Amino acid sequence: MSRFWFICWILVDFAWMGGPLWAGQKRVAILGDSITYDGRWAALVESALRATPDFKEAEIVNLGLPSETLSGLSEPGHAGGQFPRPCLVERLNRVLDAFRPDLVLACYGMNDGIMQPLEEARMEAFRQGAIRLKDECGKRKAELVFISAPLFCADQAASDAQHYDAVLDAQAEWLVSKRKDAWQVIDIRPALKSAVSGARAADPKFVYAADNVHPGDAGHRFIAGAVLEPLWGILKLPGKPEVAGDEALKVLKQRADLLKLAWLTKTGHKRPGIPAGIPLDQAEAEAGVLLERYQ
Hints:
- The protein is an alpha/beta fold.
- It has one domain (about 20-295): Rossmann fold (3-Layer(aba) Sandwich), CATH 3.40.50.
- The chain is built from ten helices and five strands; from the N terminus they run αβααβαβαβαβαααα.
- A five-stranded parallel β-sheet has the order 2-1-3-4-5, with helices on both faces.
- The protein is globular.
C-alpha cells in the first residue's frame, strides 16, 4: 500500500469511528445549568469563536438546562416539591448521539452540592458525574472542556450560612487536579472574584447576582471573559478573543435561543417548564438566515 493511500485509509477509518477531523463545519455543544441556559455568557463566547476562521461557520448550540446537575442529587422539596433536579446523565447519550459534537464546553457545579455544606458523599457524586461525562465524550472522540461553577453569594458573603461557595471552590480544585490526567479544565472562579472585586471598588452599589446565584449582564460578561482567554490556549486559536457588539449579539442570541429550544425538544429532558421548540429542520433553516444577518 502506498503512503498516500495508507494516510487516506487512516483518515477515513478515524472519521468512521466518530473522531473529529477538525476540518469543515465544526460542531460545538455547550452544556450546563440555568446560568448556561440563560444564554448570555454562551452567546459572548460563541461570538468570539465565530470571529476566528476555524469557527466562523461552526454549528454552536447551547444545550443548557435549568436546575441540572452532574451529581444526580436533588434536595427534598426542590422547586416547592414540583420536581427533582434533572441530571445530565439522563439525557447525555441522546444529546451526544444526536448532535455529534466535536467540542463540548460543560459548566456545572452550582446545583451539584444541592446548596448544602461540603460533604464527601455529595462531592463524590459530582466527581462520578464528571467522570461519566468525560468517558461518554471520549467514546465519541469529542473534545471536552470543563468550566468550573460561577460564584455563589458574591454580593452578600455573610448570607452564605451553609458556606456553599466553599463547596464550589472544592469542586473547582478537584477539576483542576484532573489536569494531571489530561483533562481540559477552565477554572473561572479566580478571575470572576477579581472582576467582581474590581467592579465593586469602582461602584460600591455593583451587584453581580441579585438572587445570589444568577448573574446579571455584567456577571455574564465576566464569565465569558474568564472562559475565553484560557479557551484560546486550549484550542490554540490565533490572536486574542474579541466579542461582538451589542446589536450583533442580539441576533446571535436570538439564533442561539431558537436552536436551544429545538434541540432540547428533539433530544428530550425531564425539566418541566421549558418551552417547546419548533421542529429542528425549521429551526435550522431560520437559524441559517439569522447567521447570515449576524455575519
